[in-house]
Amino acid sequence: MTKSYEEIPLTPISDTPSTINLTGYWRVMRPVVDKSKCKKCTICWKFCPDAVIKLVDGEPVIDLQYCKGCGVCSFECPAKCIIMMKEGDL
Amino acid sequence: MGKPTIPETEFTFPGSTGCPGCGANLVMRYLLKGLGERTILSIPACCWAVMPGYWPSTCLKVPLLYTAFEATGAAMSGLRAALDVKGIKDVTVVGFAGDGGTVDIGLQAMSGAAERRTDGIYVMYDNEAYMNTGIQRSGSTPWGAWTTTTPVGSTHGFKHEAKKDIMAIMQAHRIPYAATVSVAHPEDFIKKVAKAKEVKGFRFIHAMSPCPPGWRMNPMHVVEVARLAVDTHAFPLYEIESGKVRITRKGKGAPVSEYLRFQGRFSHLTDVEIAAIQKAIDENWQMLLAKEASGT
Amino acid sequence: MREVMTGNYASAYGAKLARAEVIAAYPITPQTSIVEKLADFVATGELKAQFIPVESEHSAMAACIAAQTAGARTYTATSSHGLALMHEVLTWASGARLPIVMTNVSRAMAPPWSVWVDHMDSIAQRDTGWLQFYCQSNQEVLDTIIMAYKVCESSGVMLPAMVVMDAFILSHTSEPVDIPDQALVDSFLPPYSPDLKIEVGKPMGFGSLVKPDQYMEFRYKAMLGMKASRDRFLRVEQEFKNIFGREHGGLLERYQCDDADVVLVAAGSVAATAKDVVDSMRAKGHRVGLARIRSFRPFPHDEVRALAGKVEGIAVLDRSYTFGAAGAMFTETKASAYSVQKRPVMKNYIAGLGGRDITPRILEKIFEDIQVVSKRGAEDEVEWVDVAGLPRRWR
Questions:
Q1: Domain range spanning residue C93?
Q2: pLDDT exceeding 90 applies to what percent of chain B?
Q3: What is the number of structural domains in chain C?
Q4: Which of B110, B117, B38 is nearest to B67 (CA)?
Q5: Which chain B residue has the Cα nearest residue C61?
Q6: Nearest to C204 among A2, A4, A14 (CB)
Q7: Looking at the complex, does the CB of residue A54 fall below 8 Å from at least one CB of chain B?
Q8: Could you tell me which CATH class the domain B23-294 is placed in?
């Protein structure tokens, strides 16, 4: 929605968190965590480029509203407990 | 159960418009974990000028000044001068630019800021081409790489010029601290950033930033490729502190083909060409070892 | 305190009295002594400022932009190719709505190489959103710098300004200049305090990406700033007059125009010479006048239109050329005069490029020519003055 010239600042100054961009819609592949195999090593959290993995009791909780499905967590997981599955298949 | 090996506080919001698996996203994430909240960033035209999103969105929890392409070094000097004249202390001024905006169009301004000993940290995130404009070659593109302006064709294929050695250029400026960092080694990355933060004067961080679309690779391999770059000595991890080289990770010395094979931008290379790359990397590694040994 | 000083020194004093906090500049003839003088002031502690000896003019403006965004009052100075090199970031400064003040010592562009005066450098930047003031004396340079900060920093304006003075004729020529008292200047010009500045603890982005569906609104606001600067300038100059006892003629300084048949429109030091010519011609009974474009941006549209409604002929002297239908000042003057009921005859005189001297005799001939042309109509609307090889003799 185009804001009136009276409603905008003099120059574009950004002050709204990017959480308004739901990048989860980009996803083609979705990471699925097999908690039974998870060793709670925190490596997936460490390497997520978008920092959308939270650690809850040491286990990854992936924010699917923003996860872009890049697969880094899946590849880096030493226990191989994160599988990338096609969005359409779920 | 493991404990996080790097600080847990995040200084970015989700929703950045970087590509899936963007190495530059990781660079910024680790950089800010090392620097903390009292940081002001200056970012020129580059991928990271777009990644915070359209106005009014920002994915950063620190203030950010967008600037013209070649102006990063000058903007750092201007920011620091304003903070000094206002008596505002304990703020890290950071210039955060891509390789094109550093080794090519931004080289003059950075050189000026370094010569003036501007108190700030210049971070070059190196995805080895002009990625924001669609993968054109820069002075930092390595020998052998395909880009849109060094396409593989019958008359002249791929980039035939060596990658500019920006660390050597910064060493020649006699700055107090410079370091290479890798997103595959976040602990080392953050440690170096925290170290740089405490040094006064002009500091330089060279971060390799693997780029899935630009390097023609599967995004899930972003960290692995960064890891292989270090292991094969294609991107050695070292510091230059008060002019002295110190290698911070010796690496296995694996054959460079292991690094190249993940990246479609090198898929056209013949065995002879890969051997040439191996030779250049070995020579560069030996030179680095010699610098370290001789205390220069 | 009155001293004899060059325009460059007057410029440096202007920046010093305005308490510029960050100065980033790169040397170029004939601006150099401005920056040297300011470096002196900073070195002796007379001026509490950060001086950044940048490595190019582009970096000078980029550093000022960054420092101004962080809340510091900034100043720089340049000339000719230095100004041209800054072009990219001049647009940035105005789009970012930063009230930076800069002195441009107007000098010809190369090739051919020239260090002497013409206005092509500053005229070429007329589209960048900067206010432009053309000075005719060293006093005016000092005063205009101080006034410019006040005009530009007001919340309705928030645009940068360049104060233009002629190379060598003003920059290196000494004239008596009154240096106002610092306390008096402080009472006129308060410290710079913007509503928003980049600072730790406020995670904002300054200068973000805007989609086509919102960009125009930002440009429209910038236009409103330039529009507001018109009246703001007149009020600021009135205030200046009240405190310091002098002013320099508003946006368009009119000299003997009230009952003039023909007027010469010009900017810069040549206008001062023209006033002398007006006097000598008036003594011989000619009803001539001089209208000096002091503010080229904002263009004195209303004043020019009012003048055009009263005279028979307008000669516009452009000390620059833009390869268009006519010179820039002529084109804008003519545009303002267009809507007048009874339009005067108008003619453009391109003169003084590359420092070619515009003598009183030449100005006299221009007046004589416009007098003739205003009765007969102009054969050629644009005439180049004093070019060897052209049939007309001007000396």
A1: 2-244
A2: 95
A3: 2
A4: B110
A5: B74
A6: A14
A7: no
A8: alpha beta
